[in-house]
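Task 17 of the worksheet. Students: predict the tertiary structure of the chain below and write it out as structure tokens. Keep your answer in the requested format; marks are given for formatting as well as content.
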Amino acid sequence: MFICCSYAAFLYNKTWNIHKTTPFFNYNKHQQTQYEGELLTYIAANARNLISSALTGPSQTGGAAATITNRTGGAFPGQIDSSGNNLVETLDELGDIRGIKFQSLNTSDVQDSDEERTGEVADTDSIVVTVTVRPKGRTRDQAYYCVIVPDQRHRKASQTQAFTHFGVILFKAPVMIAQLVNQWLERRFDCRICHLVFQMFELRKIVESALEVSYNHPQGHDHGKERPVELCYSLPQAVVGLKTISVSLAADDVRQLFVSRVEDSETGILDGIEAHCSDSMKIDFSRLVLSRAGCSSWYIASEGKIKVFPDIATRYSLTDFIQAITVCGT
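Model answer:
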């Protein structure tokens, strides 16, 4: 089935946990109905085996919650606990599984001129797995999502190949459901799926390129009402009473930093921001590690979480943003 809404709109305003996957073996885009039944059977058969181990282990959400706040006092997306870790959605008991649905989303921002949508699943479509649950003790169903995103580097791969090159899997689901879906995908398509945690240089590269595209342009955009650019750094060595340092810059200030760069300079915008803040605040950024970053278009955390906003459509490319993530961890 093809979802009649855009790939971007479906992903907007949700916090996604990122997983890396190897290619799927013998995936058939015409057998989605069969996959729905197989996954439903697998979850029903294995959910109880997972509950005890998932819920008796160390809590991933313990402690008082803290939020990153922007300069205007609003909450920045992506809550963290008192230890500086991202919160994880939890589900005490699975409840009743109301249904499994496999659907397709058009991954490309703009279709090639010679391509027409006919309702057929294209090779570049993302696969959305929706698990609908009636949590125990509740009267309303809750939908959880898994989005399997193709690797655009293999977009022109032969359709006769046994492997389908998906790059990343995005989860909006409690750990228990995500783990069950992961297990089934690995068994069914002979692939390996693991949580993606960004290395420092990978996160910096993604943030650098995203800021470059979003803010390095002549005057013309009105940045006045935009969310500021936020950079959060962690300290490799513990300092009593200090765990993170956050830097917030107005969008116009970031643009001015681009404008003020020496022509043909190879200095990146992150180095420029850090040098600017170092001069004014006497902070040695070489001893800090970038752990989270965000702006009005996107948010990304080294723990493997992203959130995208509608503004990315006018500033950047959602496909390019996801693809920049896809090449990490390889």
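Marker's comment: The chain has two domains: 7-195, 200-302. Confidence is low (pLDDT under 50) at residues 51-92, 110-121.
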